[in-house]
Amino acid sequence: MDFGLDPEDELFRQEVRAFLDRELPADWLGMSVSWAGYGAASGELEGPVRQTFYKKLIKRGWPTMAWPKAYGGQDASFTHQYVYNEEMAYRGAPESGGIAVTYVGPAIMVHGSEEHKKKFLGGIVRGEISFAQGFSEPGAGSDLASVTTRAVRDGYDYIINGQKTFTSGAHLADYIWLLARTNADVPKHKGLSMFVFPMKTPGVTSRPFLNICDVLSFNDVYFDNVRVPQDALVGEEDKGWYQAMTGLDFERSGVARFAGCRRAMELLVRYMKETKWNGRYLAEDPLARERVAETAVDIEVGRLMALRIISMQTRRMSVSNASSVSKLYGSELSQRLARLGADVMGPFGTLTRRSKWAPLSGFFELAYRNSVSATLGAGTSEIQRNILAQRGLGLPR
């Protein structure tokens, strides 16, 4: 395939770069909590910058530019969306709408009723509503099909009981995108359904807790006889597993991951060229140079993987296997890169952003902590390998 972009795409890239130069604070590196496409936190550290910045993105329609015009998008090409996502991640810009834009909206387009599309898609495009993902449970994380949160039909309603955990941003979200069990008498992945309803529904309790980066981000969410109307069900009953997988395929494409890694690598190389240790620049150390060169090649390979997925999406091909490859490769790459940065900086690499002596405003210290979750969120590395073995290679379970 041709990995080059059209002149129109490159012109748009310059427009996005000019916007970021103009709108992000000069000291954004010290404020940003983004690492290699993974947000380390919600908005607490980035504060008012996030809100003002996102309003300007919404005004341009960029977060949802590739959505159909019928749903409020611009019918932009996948390559245009790729350029936007790449530049945003490269600069560590605040997230563009979170899961509402990345996969709840696209999943509703595929599986939602006309009422759901009218109710939610316009609000997502205008940046008026946000979502939390109710998937993981204390006993069901990697083995997502083992969720035990129950949704029992009661007349024209469903009554929901159970618990979700590691629910990012639930204390700030307007709605929850919930996977619950509606049938216990069939194989576990065939008895799940997807629901969407307000977080303020009576019986829903959210308890936020600190993540590994000491930021209030995750939540335990409890459902105590939560009554929701039948129209909270997304698509068909007992088809929730397939709807969940649709959303996760969007999440795993990897564009932001590799752009963020490229940014981090450039920062590290600059630091090595400017910093001396025992009388010589770090960039002159042969072992460090070899590891940096090897990791730089890995990042370029990842970028080409992401471009391949964009090409497949443009041709309306299934990207399920390719997305798992990209997610597996990218999440493990981000850990290797974070470890490399910490090793190169030595003792100084352990200093947090609160220290005036922290290299690069503590970027790699935060990266090292945050990268721990890279191979867990959105499906562990083990799960990705199982997917590739079974779906991609046709191996038995």
Amount of helix: 40-55%
Largest pleated sheet: 4 strands, mixed
What fold name goes in the CATH topology slot of the largest domain?
A: Butyryl-CoA Dehydrogenase, subunit A, domain 3
Count of discrete alpha- or pi-helical segments spanning 4 or more residues: 12
For the termini, the CA-CA separation is 33 Å
The CATH C-level class name of the largest domain: Mainly Alpha
> For the residues shown, what is the average pLDDT?
87
From the structure above, extract its key features:
397 residues, alpha+beta, Butyryl-Coa Dehydrogenase, subunit A, domain 1, Butyryl-CoA Dehydrogenase, subunit A, domain 2, Butyryl-CoA Dehydrogenase, subunit A, domain 3, 3 domains, four-stranded mixed β-sheet, 12 helices, 45% helix, 16% strand
Give the topology, please.
Blueprint: H1 7-23, H2 28-31, E1 34-35, E2 38-39, H3 48-60, H4 78-90, H5 98-111, H6 114-125, E3 131-134, E4 150-154, E5 157-164, E6 175-181, E7 192-198, E8 204-210, E9 216-229, E10 233-234, H7 240-251, H8 255-274, E11 276-277, E12 280-281, H9 286-314, H10 320-345, H11 363-370, H12 381-392
Parallel strand pairs: 3-6
Antiparallel strand pairs: 1-2, 4-5, 5-9, 6-7, 7-10, 8-9, 11-12
